[in-house]
C-alpha cells in the first residue's frame, strides 16, 4: 500500500514536470525574443490566476498562478492582455510603440521554441525507441462483440480489413495519425451503411456495415460511431493467480497462449468465451514460452477450470496483459514531427466538417492532457511513451497557437501584419476590447473541455477490462491439470 502511494506520487511529479516544461519552454521563447528586441517585460508566469508565489528580479515579476492551464509573458507593448495577465504596472500607452516586425518576432518565438522542444523529444524517441503494441499495428480482427454491427455483417476474428468507406486502412485503432485506422474512418463516416473491404482465407470480399452509437449516458462525451470489434492480439499472460489451474500447470508471466482446443486465439476474449461455453470441461492450451534471446519452447497444457473462492464461474486463474507484446520502433525525428502535424490537421478537419460527429467535447484540456501522461507513465515502458506523446503535444501547442485568432500567438501576428499594412498602430481601446472578448471565449472553451476531462476521472479506472478480474482470484489448494511438451524450438 505504501509503495503504491509513493509510486503514484512519483508519477504525479513526473507528469507535472513534463507538462510544465512544455509551458516553460514556450513562454521562454516569448521572453527571450522580447528581451532581444528591446521590449518591456513585466511578468513571466506559469499558470493563470492570482499568484501562489511571485518574486521580482531585474524588474520582471516571476510568478506561479493557481489555475494549472498554460502561462504568459506580459509584454505591454503588444496587444493589451489584461484579462489573462492582470493589470499592467504602468500605463502601456506611455511606452514607446513596438515595431510590427518586433511584435511578430516575439509572437512567433513561442511556437518556434515549442517546435524545437518537440524536435528534441523526437530525437530522444529516435534513440530510445517508442513501444508499439501488437494491437496498434494490425488491421486483423481479434474479437467481434456479439450482436454488434460487425457481427451482424458477418465479420469474424482473423479477417484482415483493407479499406473502410473507400479509405485504405492499416490499423484498427491506435495512437498517432488516425486516417489509416478503422476506428477513425468509421467515426467520421456519415452514411447509414459504409462499405468495408476485407480479406478472409486469401479471398477479398466487400460488405456493408451499419455502424452503431452506444446510448449516451449522463454528462460524459457523446459516443462515436463504431463497429464494435477489437484488433488481433496474441493473449499474453501478465500474472498467474496462486494455486490456480494455470499455476499448478506451471504457466507463468510472459507466456503466450497461441491456441485453445486446437483453434487459434486472436484475442484473450476468445478464451473467455470458450470457458463460458464449456465451463466444466478441460481446455487444451497451446503455450509459447521464450526461454532466452535465441530460443523458445511450445507445448500443450490441459487445464480444468476451477471456481475460485467466493466466485461463481470456473476460471483458469490467468490475468492478461492488456497491451500484449510490445515492439520498440525508432522513427526518425522529422517523420515524428510530420506525423504530429497530420494528426492535428485530421482533427481540425473533422471539427470543421459539416455534420461531423467529432465535436469540441471530444478534445482535451490541461486536465485531460495530464491524465493521459499519468496513464502513459503507469504502462510498461511508460517514460518512452511519455516522450513520444510530448512530441505530439508540443507540435500541437505550436500549431494551435499559430491560428490567427486574437489572444493566440497567431492573432498577434495577424494584428501586427494589419499594422504593417496600415502603417500605424491599431487603436488601443479596440485592441483591448477584442483581446478581452477572445480571452473570455478561451476561458469558456477551457472550462467546457475541462468539464468532460473531470468526468473521465479517476484516472480511467472507470474502464473495466472484461479480461481482468475486478478482485484478486483465490483458489483452494487442489487443482486437476496436466501438462506436456509438444515441440521445442
Tally of DSSP β-strands:
17
How would you classify the helix and strand content by structural class?
alpha+beta
Given the structure, what is the number of helices? Answer: 12
The residue fraction in helices comes out at: 25-40%
The largest sheet has its strands arranged as 12-11-13-14-17
Give a quick precis of the structure.
By secondary structure, this protein is an alpha+beta fold.
List the helices and strands and how they pair.
Elements: H1 2-36, E1 43-57, E2 60-74, H2 82-85, H3 100-128, E3 130-133, E4 141-144, H4 149-153, E5 160-164, E6 167-168, H5 182-187, E7 194-200, E8 203-209, E9 229-231, E10 237-240, H6 245-248, E11 256-260, E12 263-264, H7 268-277, E13 283-290, E14 296-303, E15 318-320, E16 326-329, H8 333-352, H9 366-378, H10 382-401, H11 409-422, H12 428-455, E17 481-488
Antiparallel strand pairs: 1-2, 3-16, 4-9, 5-6, 5-7, 7-8, 10-15, 11-12, 11-13, 13-14, 14-17
Helix pairs in contact: 1-3, 1-9, 3-8, 3-10, 3-11, 8-10, 9-10, 9-12
Structural commentary:
Helices cover 38% and strands 21% of the residues. The protein is an alpha+beta fold and 489 residues long. Among the domains are: 200 residues, no CATH class; 87 residues, Roll (Pdz3 Domain), CATH 2.30.42. The strands form six sheets. A five-stranded antiparallel β-sheet has the order 12-11-13-14-17. The longest helix is centred in the N-terminal third of the chain and has 35 residues. It starts with a helix and ends with a strand.
Amino acid at each position: 500500500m505504501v509503495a503504491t502511494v509513493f509510486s503514484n506520487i512519483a508519477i504525479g511529479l513526473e507528469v507535472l514536470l513534463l507538462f510544465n516544461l512544455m509551458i516553460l519552454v514556450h513562454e521562454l521563447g516569448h521572453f527571450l525574443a522580447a528581451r532581444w528586441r528591446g521590449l518591456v517585460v513585466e511578468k513571466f508566469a506559469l499558470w493563470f490566476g492570482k499568484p501562489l508565489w511571485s518574486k521580482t528580479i531585474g524588474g520582471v515579476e516571476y510568478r506561479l498562478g493557481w489555475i494549472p492551464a498554460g502561462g504568459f509573458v506580459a509584454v505591454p507593448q503588444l496587444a493589451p492582455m489584461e484579462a489573462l495577465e492582470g493589470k499592467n504596472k504602468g500605463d502601456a500607452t506611455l511606452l514607446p510603440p513596438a515595431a510590427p516586425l518586433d511584435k511578430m518576432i516575439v509572437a512567433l518565438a513561442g511556437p518556434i521554441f515549442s517546435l524545437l522542444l518537440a524536435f528534441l523529444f523526437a530525437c530522444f524517441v529516435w534513440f530510445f525507441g517508442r513501444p508499439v503494441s501488437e494491437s496498434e499495428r494490425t488491421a486483423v480482427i481479434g474479437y467481434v462483440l456479439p450482436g454488434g454491427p460487425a457481427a451482424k455483417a458477418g465479420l469474424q476474428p482473423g479477417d484482415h480489413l483493407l479499406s473502410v468507406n473507400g479509405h485504405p486502412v492499416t490499423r484498427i485503432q491506435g495512437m498517432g495519425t488516425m486516417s489509416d485506422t478503422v476506428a477513425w474512418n468509421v467515426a467520421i463516416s456519415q452514411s447509414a451503411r459504409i462499405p468495408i473491404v476485407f480479406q478472409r482465407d486469401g479471398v477479398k470480399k466487400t460488405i456493408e456495415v451499419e455502424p452503431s452509437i452506444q446510448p449516451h449516458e449522463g454528462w460524459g462525451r457523446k459516443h462515436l460511431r463504431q463497429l464494435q470489434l477489437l484488433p488481433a492480439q496474441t493473449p499474453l499472460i501478465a500474472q498467474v493467480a496462486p494455486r490456480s489451474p494455470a499455476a499448478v500447470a506451471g504457466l507463468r508471466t510472459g507466456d503466450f497462449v497461441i491456441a485453445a482446443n486446437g483453434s487459434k486465439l486472436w484475442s484473450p476474449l476468445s478464451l473467455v468465451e470458450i470457458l463460458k461455453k464449456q465451463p466444466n470441461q478441460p481446455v487444451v492450451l497451446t503455450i509459447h514460452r521464450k526461454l532466452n534471446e535465441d530460443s523458445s519452447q511450445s507445448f500443450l497444457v490441459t487445464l480444468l477450470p476451477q471456481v475460485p473462492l467466493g466466485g461463481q464461474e470456473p476460471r483458469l486463474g490467468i490475468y492478461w496483459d492488456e497491451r500484449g507484446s510490445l515492439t520498440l520502433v525508432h522513427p526518425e525525428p522529422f517523420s515524428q514531427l510530420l506525423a504530429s502535424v497530420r494528426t492535428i490537421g485530421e482533427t481540425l478537419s473533422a471539427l470543421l466538417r459539416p455534420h461531423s460527429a467529432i465535436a469540441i467535447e471530444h478534445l482535451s484540456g490541461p486536465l485531460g492532457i495530464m491524465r493521459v501522461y499519468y496513464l502513459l507513465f503507469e504502462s510498461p515502458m511508460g517514460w518512452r511513451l511519455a516522450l513520444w506523446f510530448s512530441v505530439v503535444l508540443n507540435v500541437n501547442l505550436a500549431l494551435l497557437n499559430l491560428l490567427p485568432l486574437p489572444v493566440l500567438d497567431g492573432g498577434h501576428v495577424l494584428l501586427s501584419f494589419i499594422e504593417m499594412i496600415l502603417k500605424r498602430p491599431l487603436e488601443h481601446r479596440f485592441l483591448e476590447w477584442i483581446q478581452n472578448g477572445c480571452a473570455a471565449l478561451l476561458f469558456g472553451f477551457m472550462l467546457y473541455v475541462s468539464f468532460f476531462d473531470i468526468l473521465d476521472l479517476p484516472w480511467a479506472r472507470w474502464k473495466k477490462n472484461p479480461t481482468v478480474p475486478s478482485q484478486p482470484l483465490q483458489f483452494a489448494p487442489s487443482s486437476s491439470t496436466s501438462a506436456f511438451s509438444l515441440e521445442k524450438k
